[in-house]
Specification:
Blueprint (H helix, E strand, L loop, with lengths): L1 E4 L2 E4 L4 E7 L8 E7 L6 E10 L2 E6 L7 E6 L4 E6 L8 E8 L10 E2 L3 E6 L1
Parallel strand pairs: 2-11
Antiparallel strand pairs: 1-3, 3-8, 4-5, 4-9, 5-6, 7-8, 9-10, 9-11
Amino acid sequence: QLQACGGGLVQAGASLRLSCAASGGTFSYSTVGWFRQAPGKEREFVAAIRRAGVRLYYTNYADAVKGRFTISRDDAKNTAYLQMNSLKPEDTAVYFCAADPTDSYLSGYKYWGQGTLVTISS
């Protein structure tokens, strides 16, 4: 139900925007999150956006990406985004999007998309 795309190979300092499209109906998930898994490492939380009301959302970021990454969503387009700026080689990983009907954002997501590979060269 979730399809992530937008990964690629870029140089350090560049930007990428990842997209996460939900198919099969309304993008009604309360929380959408992005996670990443670097080679040889465990999957880690990157960012999340939680619906808090009509056109009101809360966002959360991992310290490693705060100030460089921005998560957003367009429920009318059934899509969430992760804008990644000032990319660093340590951002290299497979990025996954996830969604959940609750407002839990660090873990326990019910739905997961396949990953998209982001590679940052130095």
